[in-house]
């Protein structure tokens, strides 16, 4: 779909497609009053990747972002997109080729959602039919209800407005997308949801994305690479999240990532990268005497009881089993359910979280269909960390 | 006292019911037409001066505070004084009235259009830049439509004020509904004064309603 | 400009100026005394706001000249006539701004004051009014400046402050008194406006340096 669009795009918006890497060469931004927002920055943001700029407030991350589409003018150095110097291109033309999403959606209150999304295509002089089709496509792409297209921004929730902001930025299919704290203004639950959808969207569209945030968790979660800025507009480290965690370049980076950086590393790995333990299981129609002998043989404190579809019903521990009648079915006993469900695509941090509140010493892991795949225990996680 | 009021009202009704008051050059309709002509001309000239100033300053964001303060002081310019002064300088004619009314019409329109432009959400303004709109495109497609309700409110305030102040035209020998006030005052015919007052008030309120309707019509739906 | 006329008529000019100031000051005072309780009621019972605004709005559309003349049978060629008229014109502006100012106090501040145990009256005078002050003063400024121009019309019913100079100029076909009256009334407006800004600056120390 996006490929189609690239072929149909006019010469003007194709200019930057060939190479959309963004290169800062000794870029400095100094304001009139002498404050230096960005100090001799050398940085190459690879094409097709999502780079997150993160740092404490006043570190120059937003200024860095805004220099890319010339909302700020650089004082010194060179900023290249592909091999073109941004300062040599007409500013408005440049901006039409670069999507921009901001914290407060910045939607035009007097235009409908559809018209808001159509702004850049109109500026580029697309035909009516082509605009209409593109808008419909985008409404679907960002997961908006079609019925909202004729509404006005004030009739939408914050999360929906942010989706519209994203659709507007993507409208002319720009190869580059700039995002200034795009998820900061929505509540935490909506934010997590939007982040996840955004990640899957990026997997499909593969744009060069630069995102600013002050939230290190968001940076680690979303970024292919993360640039950590220190006060005074200096770059402290630019690396993949895994590298930042395992080889932080300075105390500042360690501090900024936080004391719980081991836990953060867990968040970067998924359960399916681990070899699960088969665990001890029994079908629900098993009788107590047999279950007891399994447990004794395995020397385990309990057993995972599965239903006919191999979905875990609950945890049966030794204390309960010990007192029960030999001939009773085990699903007539009191099984302890798990508060969390853990799937193969969950990360190890969620696994640890689930384990802590698990009634037994192990936590069952499910596949996408909810079937039992094995168990995970604390020992496995601890080994992973060292 | 009560008798006074009753005879006053009787006088008004009598005035309105006399056919000769409805025909010819000195008729009610003729005075209304003259009155509205002054108002329309003055408001249009005022808008042609005030709106570009207010909108331009609001768009660029420079020098606005000074302009607003000057414009607010402009409200203090006594229309009565301007009419007489220009009359002495330029002699008999529409000129004194138009000058005074234009001076009266300008301040509210400058202030409102400036404030309307400045009140456009900075995030929206910034989005327009970031999406690659040129200065003109931002002005016409984003800022003006959003500022329109306030701009129109300014025009409305001006028009209503001009409508009631245009009565002063009669003092320097011109027509309009002020004739009833000035002539009535001269001969102590209060019924005639009341006729003038009622007619002007009705016209002023009609102007209010007209602009309220117009404002609704041209305000983008998303802003309502 | 005939400075000789100015020199020989200083007395008349000063008297006109003083009467002008007096009319404006009293009209603002009475206007405020009426608009303030009305605004409090309209804030307390929002349903009153619409009708009050409509009534004051209609009164604002009556041409000032007509209003002054129509009051004459009741109050004659006295100061009361022009004072009543001028007061009526301040009402709309003052009422609207006082209501807007009080409504602009953020609910969380109001809530906090309540939680801290302020009585309603104390809350009004020590919390809400100070916060609403800038908007209220803005209203007084507009009302004052508008009235300063309008006073001159009352010259037609024998009052008028500086407006008397206009009539003198008109009857003598002589521009000097007109220019004097004109300049003085604009200067008066500037002075009153600056004074009000100063009072606001002095009363709202927390706003200094913020805009």
From TrEMBL, chain A:
<protein>
    <submittedName>
        <fullName>Proline/glycine betaine ABC transporter ATP-binding protein</fullName>
    </submittedName>
</protein>
<dbReference type="GO" id="GO:0005524">
    <property type="term" value="F:ATP binding"/>
</dbReference>
<dbReference type="InterPro" id="IPR003439">
    <property type="entry name" value="ABC_transporter-like_ATP-bd"/>
</dbReference>
<comment type="similarity">
    <text>Belongs to the ABC transporter superfamily.</text>
</comment>
<dbReference type="InterPro" id="IPR046342">
    <property type="entry name" value="CBS_dom_sf"/>
</dbReference>
<dbReference type="InterPro" id="IPR003593">
    <property type="entry name" value="AAA+_ATPase"/>
</dbReference>
<keyword id="KW-0547">Nucleotide-binding</keyword>
<keyword id="KW-0067">ATP-binding</keyword>
<dbReference type="InterPro" id="IPR027417">
    <property type="entry name" value="P-loop_NTPase"/>
</dbReference>
<dbReference type="Pfam" id="PF00005">
    <property type="entry name" value="ABC_tran"/>
</dbReference>
<keyword id="KW-0813">Transport</keyword>
<dbReference type="InterPro" id="IPR017871">
    <property type="entry name" value="ABC_transporter-like_CS"/>
</dbReference>
<feature type="domain" description="ABC transporter">
    <location>
        <begin position="22"/>
        <end position="257"/>
    </location>
</feature>
From TrEMBL, chain B:
<keyword id="KW-0812">Transmembrane</keyword>
<dbReference type="Pfam" id="PF00528">
    <property type="entry name" value="BPD_transp_1"/>
</dbReference>
<keyword id="KW-1133">Transmembrane helix</keyword>
<dbReference type="InterPro" id="IPR051204">
    <property type="entry name" value="ABC_transp_perm/SBD"/>
</dbReference>
<feature type="transmembrane region" description="Helical">
    <location>
        <begin position="194"/>
        <end position="214"/>
    </location>
</feature>
<keyword id="KW-0472">Membrane</keyword>
<dbReference type="InterPro" id="IPR000515">
    <property type="entry name" value="MetI-like"/>
</dbReference>
<feature type="transmembrane region" description="Helical">
    <location>
        <begin position="79"/>
        <end position="106"/>
    </location>
</feature>
<protein>
    <submittedName>
        <fullName>Glycine/betaine ABC transporter permease</fullName>
    </submittedName>
</protein>
<feature type="domain" description="ABC transmembrane type-1">
    <location>
        <begin position="32"/>
        <end position="211"/>
    </location>
</feature>
<feature type="transmembrane region" description="Helical">
    <location>
        <begin position="162"/>
        <end position="182"/>
    </location>
</feature>
<dbReference type="InterPro" id="IPR035906">
    <property type="entry name" value="MetI-like_sf"/>
</dbReference>
<keyword id="KW-0813">Transport</keyword>
<comment type="similarity">
    <text>Belongs to the binding-protein-dependent transport system permease family.</text>
</comment>
<feature type="transmembrane region" description="Helical">
    <location>
        <begin position="36"/>
        <end position="58"/>
    </location>
</feature>
TrEMBL record, chain C:
<keyword id="KW-0812">Transmembrane</keyword>
<protein>
    <submittedName>
        <fullName>Glycine/betaine ABC transporter permease</fullName>
    </submittedName>
</protein>
<dbReference type="InterPro" id="IPR035906">
    <property type="entry name" value="MetI-like_sf"/>
</dbReference>
<dbReference type="Pfam" id="PF00528">
    <property type="entry name" value="BPD_transp_1"/>
</dbReference>
<feature type="transmembrane region" description="Helical">
    <location>
        <begin position="77"/>
        <end position="95"/>
    </location>
</feature>
<feature type="transmembrane region" description="Helical">
    <location>
        <begin position="178"/>
        <end position="203"/>
    </location>
</feature>
<dbReference type="InterPro" id="IPR000515">
    <property type="entry name" value="MetI-like"/>
</dbReference>
<dbReference type="InterPro" id="IPR051204">
    <property type="entry name" value="ABC_transp_perm/SBD"/>
</dbReference>
<feature type="domain" description="ABC transmembrane type-1">
    <location>
        <begin position="17"/>
        <end position="195"/>
    </location>
</feature>
<feature type="transmembrane region" description="Helical">
    <location>
        <begin position="20"/>
        <end position="41"/>
    </location>
</feature>
<keyword id="KW-1133">Transmembrane helix</keyword>
<comment type="similarity">
    <text>Belongs to the binding-protein-dependent transport system permease family.</text>
</comment>
<keyword id="KW-0813">Transport</keyword>
<feature type="transmembrane region" description="Helical">
    <location>
        <begin position="53"/>
        <end position="71"/>
    </location>
</feature>
<keyword id="KW-0472">Membrane</keyword>
């Amino acid at each position: 779909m996006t490929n189609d669009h690239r072929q149909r795009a006019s010469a003007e918006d194709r200019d930057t497609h060939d190479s959309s890497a963004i290169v800062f060469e000794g870029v400095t931004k100094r304001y009139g009053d002498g404050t230096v927002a960005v100090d001799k920055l050398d940085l190459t943001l690879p094409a097709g990747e999502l780079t997150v700029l993160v740092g404490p407030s006043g570190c120059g991350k937003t200024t860095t972002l805004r220099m890319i589409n010339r909302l700020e003018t650089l004082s010194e150095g060179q900023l290249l997109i592909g091999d073109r110097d941004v300062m040599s291109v007409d500013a408005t033309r440049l901006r039409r080729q670069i999507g921009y999403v901001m914290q407060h959606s910045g939607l035009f209150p007097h235009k409908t959602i559809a018209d808001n999304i159509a702004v850049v295509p109109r500026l580029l002089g697309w035909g009516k039919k082509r605009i209409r089709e593109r808008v419909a496509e985008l409404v679907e792409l960002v997961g908006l209800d079609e019925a909202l297209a004729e509404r006005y921004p004030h009739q939408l929730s914050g999360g929906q407005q942010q989706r519209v902001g994203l659709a507007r930025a993507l409208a002319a299919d720009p190869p580059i997308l700039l995002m200034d704290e795009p998820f900061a203004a929505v509540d935490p639950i909506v934010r997590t949801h939007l982040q996840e959808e955004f990640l899957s969207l990026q997997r499909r569209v593969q744009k060069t994305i630069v995102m600013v945030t002050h939230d290190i968790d968001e940076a680690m979660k979303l970024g292919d690479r993360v640039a950590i800025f220190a006060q005074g507009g200096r770059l402290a480290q630019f690396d993949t999240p895994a590298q930042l965690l395992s080889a932080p370049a300075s105390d500042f980076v360690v501090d900024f990532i936080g004391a719980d950086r081991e836990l953060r590393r867990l968040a970067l790995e998924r359960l399916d990268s681990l070899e699960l333990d088969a665990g001890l299981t029994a079908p629900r129609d098993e009788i107590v005497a047999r279950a007891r002998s399994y447990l004794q043989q395995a020397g385990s404190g309990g057993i995972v009881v599965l239903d006919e579809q191999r979905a875990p019903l609950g945890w049966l521990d030794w204390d309960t089993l010990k007192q029960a009648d030999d001939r009773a079915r085990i699903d007539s006993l009191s099984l302890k359910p798990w508060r969390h469900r853990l799937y193969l695509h969950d990360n190890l941090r969620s696994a640890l979280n689930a384990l802590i509140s698990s009634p037994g010493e192990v936590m069952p892991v499910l596949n996408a269909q909810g079937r039992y795949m094995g168990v995970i225990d604390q020992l496995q996680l601890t080994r992973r960390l060292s | 006292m009560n008798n006074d009021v009753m005879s006053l009202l009787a006088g008004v009704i009598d005035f309105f019911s006399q056919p000769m008051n409805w025909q010819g050059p000195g008729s009610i309709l003729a005075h209304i037409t003259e009155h509205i002509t002054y108002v329309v001309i003055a408001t249009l000239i005022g808008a042609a001066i005030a709106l570009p100033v207010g909108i331009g300053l609001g768009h660029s964001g420079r020098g606005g505070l000074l302009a607003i303060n000057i414009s607010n002081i402009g409200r203090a310019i006594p229309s009565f004084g301007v009419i007489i002064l220009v009359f002495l300088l330029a002699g008999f004619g529409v000129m004194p009235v138009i000058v005074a009314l234009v001076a009266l019409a300008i301040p509210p329109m400058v202030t409102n259009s400036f404030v309307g432009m400045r009140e456009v959400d900075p995030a929206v303004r910034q989005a327009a830049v970031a999406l690659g709109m040129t200065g003109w495109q931002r002005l016409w497609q984003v800022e003006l439509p959003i500022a329109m309700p306030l701009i129109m409110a300014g025009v409305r305030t001006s028009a209503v004020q001009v409508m009631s102040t245009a009565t002063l035209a009669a003092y320097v020998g011109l027509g309009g509904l002020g004739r009833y006030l000035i002539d009535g005052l001269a001969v102590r015919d209060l019924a005639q004064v009341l006729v003038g007052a009622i007619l002007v008030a009705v016209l002023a309120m009609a102007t209010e309603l007209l602009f309220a309707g117009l404002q609704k019509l041209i305000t983008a739906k998303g802003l309502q | 400009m005939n400075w000789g006329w100015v020199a020989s008529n200083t007395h008349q000019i000063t008297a006109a100026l003083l009467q002008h100031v007096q009319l404006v000051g009293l009209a603002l005072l009475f206007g405020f005394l009426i608009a303030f309780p009305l605004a409090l009621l309209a804030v307390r019972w929002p349903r009153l706001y619409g009708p009050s605004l409509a009534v004051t709005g209609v009164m604002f559309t009556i041409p000032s000249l007509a209003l002054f003349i129509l009051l004459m049978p009741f109050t004659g060629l006295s100061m009361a006539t022009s004072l009543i008229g001028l007061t009526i014109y301040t009402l709309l502006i003052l009422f609207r701004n006082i209501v807007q100012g009080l409504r602009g106090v953020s609910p969380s501040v109001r809530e906090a004051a309540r939680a801290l145990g302020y009585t309603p009256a104390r809350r009004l005078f020590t919390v809400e009014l100070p916060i609403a002050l800038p908007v209220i003063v803005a209203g007084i400024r507009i009302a004052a400046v508008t009235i300063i121009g309008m006073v001159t019309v009352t010259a037609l019913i024998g009052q008028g402050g500086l407006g008397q100079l206009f009539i003198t100029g008109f009857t003598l076909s002589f521009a000097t008194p007109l220019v004097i009256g004109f300049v003085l009334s604009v200067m008066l407006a500037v002075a009153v406006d600056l004074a009000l800004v100063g009072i606001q600056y002095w009363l709202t120390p927390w706003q200094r340096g913020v805009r």
